[in-house]
Amino acid sequence: MASSSRAQFSSRIGFILAAAGSAVGLGNIWGFPTQAASNGGAVFLFVYLLMVFALAYPLLVAELTIGRYGNANPIKSLRSIWPQQRGIAALLGIAGMIAVSMILSFYAIVAGWLFGFLVGPILEAIGFTTAANWLESFSTSRNLILMIVFMIMTIMVVRNGVANGIERWSTRLMPVLLVLFVVMTGYILTQEGAMEGLKMFLVPDFSHFSSGLVVSAMGQAFFSLSLGVCSMMVYGSYLRKDTNIPKTAAQVALLDTSVAFVAGLLILPAMFVAQHNGVEIYNDAGALLDSDTLVFSVLPAMFNTMGTGGVFIGILFFVLMVIAALTSSISMLEVPVACATEELQQDRKVAVWWIGGLITIFSSIIVFNFGDMFGLVISLTTEYAQPILGMCFALLVGWIWKRDQVLQEIKEGYPELEQSLFWKIWPWYVRVVCPVMMLMVFFA
Ligand code: PHE
Question: Mind telling me which residue stretches traverse the membrane in this protein (predicted)?
């Protein structure tokens, strides 16, 4: 029925960019560098890389494959691979949908800040200093209004659907972002203090190693690759049958990790340059001050040292960041919207508004109780919900889904699959190694 007329990404590259657009976002530029800076730098980087390749990549393949096989929203896709337990399968989809909505509710707040730092300098340049200050300093009213602006932008893109909305936004901008990062990194490394940050990021000091660090690195890897909350599943469902999933997933993981790595190369040195210039970064006990907003004090401090050119680079940077955040947030909203349009037979234009509205309300509750709720919602979703649901998906693919069906599905875009090294390792890997690894991290 709906399946043949269901929207699809028009090309393989369009899909890679959309999935990479989902993956690359605040997780890379805000989450990863902040976590690295508060967890000893290089040790965190090392464990993170391990988590991405040993755990997140195999699960990314699993989620994309479930989605493409189901060719439907996550609830239906999960049911189709577990027809004996349709109820539990649907519950898993619903859990993912709730988790991703909660992620969007804090994500929109942080993305709103980006918006503030984008518009602030422009207003300042034309003399509206008070407004610029309001945009750039922490307050409930600012957090609320900018969050709403960002939610509306997300709603507008998702409203237009996959081919028109999502794909168009995701193409072309990613390379520009990467180039800008490399340029800024080149600049920051010439500044006084930068080497200290670079050393922290690249030279491991194993005294920082702890089980908490491993849990954070796992959460960060899941968050950065948009796993465990059905975003990749829903994007997989728009994927053409002739796409090679293991290869595409590898490209997405590689791109995402490169952006996180380059962001670390920029932001850790930038922190120490800022510290050198008098910005306080660590407290006396050596813990990061205001870690949530760290990136937002360090980067503007860097643009300030660049003279007039810095204003333009700063604006360009925040424009690209808003777009990167938007290509991620649309992959979040798409999950409940796809469920509502297909399960409740609702019009996309209707579903997008009421679901987006509910998320905006929840996000406002966080804004008004920022101190109590912001960190809590982040850790509940990224450190618990994402890995736990990810583990359930691994168990489903490894133990419940018929091996032959999995094989046929991946084979559609990868005819020589049976002879590949991938097929020798991956099936038992998601069946045993991934769940065991996740359990170990949890009980460590
Ligand atoms: N991966 C996105 C980022 O790094 C966040 C995200 C999480 C997107 C979960 C979709 C689902 O910013």
Answer: 12-30, 42-66, 87-115, 144-162, 169-189, 209-236, 248-274, 294-326, 351-378, 384-401, 421-443
Q: Ligand 1 atom 12: the closest Cα is on which residue?
A: 25
**Residues near 187 by Cβ (< 8 Å), separated by ≥ 6?**
306
- The 10s digit of each residue's pLDDT in 84-114 is 999 999 999 999 999 999 999 999 999 999 9
The 10 Å Cβ neighbour count of residue 127 is: 9
Which structural domain range is residue 370 located in? 12-443
Tell me what the mean pLDDT of segment 173-187 comes to: 83
Tell which one of 226, 232, 380, 389 to mutate to probe ligand 1, the residue whose CB is within 8 A of the most ligand atoms: 226
CATH number at residue 184: 1.10.4160
Q: How confident is the model at residue 3 (pLDDT cuts 50, 70, 90)?
A: very low
* Number of domains observed in the structure of the chain: 1
Among protein residues, the one with the nearest Cα to ligand 1's atom 6 is 226
Q: What is the largest CA-CA distance in the chain?
A: 66
Q: How far is the CA of 77 from the centre of ligand 1 (A)?
A: 21
Containing 401, the helix (H) or strand (E) segment is none
Q: Which residue has the higher pLDDT, 290 or 273?
A: 273
